Every structure is written in structure tokens, then in C-alpha cells.
Amino acid sequence: MKKFDYENSFGFVVYSASKTFQKAFDLELRKKIGITITQSKVIFSLYSHSGLTQRELADKIGVESPTLVPIIDKMEEDGYVQRRSDLNDRRIKRIYTTSKTDSLWDSIIECAANLRKISINDISEQEIKSALGVVKKITENLTSYLGDYEVEVLKKHTN
């Protein structure tokens, strides 16, 4: 049996850092603003793509649509988002931010900046740039691999 140092593998270290970062950001947002990290993802997505459907929004933030329902319900109840009927199909509800959400924006950015400051303590800007470049390149490589693999699987199943 081959030995494998899982805890020091690149994938595990990146995953662990991501989970820790998310946990810290969630704590920061809850403590300073009273929203969750998932609610902040909704806000970020809606600022980039206003008027998304629930399905589109769920895909953007990486959750299942049924998981998003209570989050949107709570945000609507708190006045951060509103659902409006689609102009072409009244069965479809589109989700928009409100002016109350706008007032949170600077605080969310401050939380993110504070967390960045904490997370990069004792790390040079050059090390940060290098790490970002490496992680982005790995993401590109894996995205390419997944795309090629999906094409290969589709070919096998259509022949």
C-alpha cells in the first residue's frame, strides 16, 4: 500500500484554508453586521447580476435551490431583498436587493478587508501574489481537465 500524506496534500491544505476562511468571514459578518456568509454571497451575486431567479442565484452561490428558499425568505423578511414577478412570465420570481442592502455594502467590505488583514499577517505582498497565481493556475488546469473529461464521458455515452 502506498503512503500518502493527506494532511499535507495541496488539495487538503487549500480546502482547509477555504473552510477556515469561510468560518472566520461568517463569524465576522454575524458579529459586526448580523448577516451570514451565505446572505453575503446572495448580496454579492445580486449586485453583479440583479434580478436573478432563485435557481440562477442558487447556481451562482453554489447551493441547492431548496436550501436557498429559507435564506431568501429571511432576507426578504428583514428587508434586504425582494421578489418580483418576471415581466414576461408571472410564474417566475426574480430577486432584487433593496436600499437597506445598499446600506450594508460598506460594512461587508470592511469585514472582508479586516479578515484579509488578519489572514495575511506576516506574509509579504510578493508571497500573496505568488500564491494567488499558483492557485489560479491550478484552478485553470482542473477546469480544463473537467471540461475535457466531461466531453470524453459524453462521447462514450452517445456512441
Keywords:
159 residues, mainly alpha, Arc Repressor Mutant, subunit A, 3-stranded antiparallel sheet, 7 helices, 8% strand
Explain this structure.
The protein is mainly α. It folds into two domains: 13-121, Arc Repressor Mutant, subunit A; 122-159. It is built from seven helices and three strands. A three-stranded antiparallel β-sheet has the order 1-3-2. Helix 1 packs across helix 6.
CATH architecture label of the largest domain: Orthogonal Bundle
Q: So, the CATH homologous superfamily of the largest domain? A: Winged helix-like DNA-binding domain superfamily/Winged helix DNA-binding domain
Radius of gyration (CA) equals 20 Å
Number of strands: 3
How are the strands ordered across the major sheet?
Answer: 1-3-2
Instruction: State the helicity in percent bands.
Output: 55-70%
CATH uppermost class of the largest domain:
Mainly Alpha
Number of domains: 2
Please outline the helices and strands.
Elements: H1 10-32, H2 37-48, E1 52-53, H3 54-61, H4 65-77, E2 81-85, E3 93-97, H5 99-102, H6 105-119, H7 125-158
Antiparallel strand pairs: 1-3, 2-3
Helix pairs in contact: 1-6, 3-4
